[in-house]
Specification:
9-stranded mixed beta sheet; Rossmann fold; 2 domains; two-stranded antiparallel ribbon; 19 helices; DNAb Helicase, Chain A; alpha/beta; elongated
């Protein structure tokens, strides 16, 4: 039987080099015992690493007593094998290359194992999606295995300095991916690498439209964007994008007709014009030049989102993940526990970990509970996050979307039985003024921001197009 991929000579040479000169260890400390093909070599590496990390010497003499008591080296020839390893040592300048050879052989062995596991899983299970997710997770783990997560403070400072210098060269002063809203970018500095951002809102506030506006702006800036939708199909999202990136109403973009009423109240349908078709075609063509991918998360799990994100990152890069929305995701192994709070906590933890492991900002939409409906001021706050306080704890940024106009439209004052004309008139006048002031305006309430200020930012809202806009830009355009 053929031996699996391995490089025993490299294993011996590297071990010998470390035992002869422990300073060599610093450059190859990322190597782990399981990367060695020979289990004796793996055990030797484990013990040597433990001693060096503890500030003790690891050489043939100091390891002899340990292995004589353990008996691990008997099959390899006893403690004399330690001297043989030292004799086989390579030059310290070659140690890094030998470590690479050991790791490369381990990766090849692991790929063979994953292939075998995938074959067995595909034969023995009807769930092809689960088998694929398991295989892709294993493959991604192999790709990430060598990444070192601990580094000297000076290295971390250097990385921060590089990011600051890069940001200083951008005209907008952002250190992260743009949201497309100037005032929001000012508060956040953009959406930063590894950040977990949450946008909470009550139904009908426009969560999906807000997220799509951010996705469009990010893609237009050159970012690679994955929009993971657990709620809407691609075609519906496409219709929203057509309306948002053209002057065409959202209903007309989705139905291909404009709807009006005649004098009797009956609906009339007028087909969209050829000019409308040309505008929408141009918008679709412009989007084709950008890297903006929509993924229907049919499995509705964080694992499925992570798989799609990893695939996109491998195939050409990834800068931003948007999840619509957190409340629709599930944890299969916890679904039958009957504890939704526990399930949402797990989802929130997993999304935060996904952002960090992918090295990109991840923005997730969340639906709020009905607590604000019992308050005079309907603006949401952190206590309104549905099901779990873990969302607030896990998130680097928490924002709430609020449209006062929506609540005012549904709360026209009614005259009270004992109310005078003057009092009712004053109340009605106040309601009318408030409604006019809130027309076409939405608020983004930054309630938590680890890296900057909190507070409320105002943006525009178009009910006809179901789309948000930047009030700062519109004000500038009007002034010009």
């Amino acid at each position: 039987m053929n031996r699996p991929p391995c490089n025993l000579e490299a294993e011996q040479g590297l071990l010998g080099a470390v035992l002869a000169n422990n300073a060599v260890f610093d450059g190859v400390a990322w190597l782990r015992p399981e990367h060695f093909y020979d289990p004796v070599h793996g055990r030797l590496w484990e013990v040597a690493c433990a001693r060096v990390n503890a500030g003790r010497i690891a050489d043939a003499v100091t390891l002899r007593d340990h292995f004589e008591a353990e008996g691990t080296l008997e099959e390899a020839g006893g403690t004399k094998y330690l001297a043989e390893l030292v004799a086989a040592m390579v030059s310290p300048t070659l140690a890094s290359g030998y470590a690479d050879a050991i790791f490369n052989a381990w990766r090849r062995r692991r790929l063979i194992e994953i292939g075998g596991e995938l074959v067995r899983r595909a034969i023995g299970s009807d769930d092809a999606e689960a088998a694929q997710e398991e295989a892709e997770t294993a493959l991604f783990a192999v790709a990430e295995d060598r990444e070192e997560h601990a580094s000297p403070a000076a290295v971390a400072m250097g990385q921060a300095l590089d990011a600051a210098v890069e940001a200083s060269q951008r005209p907008n002063g952002l250190i992260g991916v743009t949201t497309g809203f100037r005032e929001l970018d000012d508060a956040l500095g953009g959406m930063r690498v590894g950040d977990f951002l949450v946008v909470g809102a009550r139904p009908s506030m426009g969560k999906t439209a807000f997220a799509l506006e951010i996705a469009v702006a990010a893609a237009a800036s050159g970012a690679s964007v994955l929009f993971a939708s657990a709620e809407m199909r691609r075609e519906k999202i496409g219709a929203r994008l057509l309306a948002g990136t053209t002057p065409i109403e959202s209903e007309a973009a989705g139905r291909g007709h404009r709807r009006t009423r005649d004098l009797t109240g009956r609906f009339l349908y007028e087909p969209i014009s050829q000019a409308d078709v040309v505008r929408m075609h141009a918008a679709a063509q412009a989007m084709a030049a950008r890297r903006f991918v929509i993924d229907e998360v049919r499995a509705r799990t964080v694992a499925a989102i992570r798989t799609a994100a990893r695939r996109m990152k491998r195939r050409g890069g990834l800068d931003l993940v948007i999840v619509d929305y957190l409340g629709l995701l599930r944890v299969p192994e916890l679904e039958h526990a009957g504890n939704r709070t526990l399930e949402v906590t797990r989802i929130s933890n997993d999304l935060q970990a996904t952002a960090k492991s992918l090295g990109v900002p991840l923005l997730a939409l969340a639906q709020l509970n009905r607590a604000n409906m019992q308050r005079d001021d309907k603006r949401p706050n952190l206590a309104d996050l549905r099901d779990s306080g873990s969302i607030e704890q896990d998130a680097d940024v928490v924002m709430f979307l609020h449209r006062e106009e929506y609540y005012l439209e549904n709360s026209r004052p009614n005259r009270k039985a004992d109310e005078t004309d003057e009092k009712f008139g004053n109340r009605l006048s106040g309601w009318t003024e408030a409604r006019l002031a809130s027309a076409g305006v939405a608020e983004v309430i930054v309630a938590k921001n680890r890296e900057g200020p909190t507070g409320t930012r105002r943006i525009s809202w178009s009910a006809e197009r179901s789309w948000f806009g930047d009030l700062a830009e519109e004000s500038g355009a009007a002034a010009g």
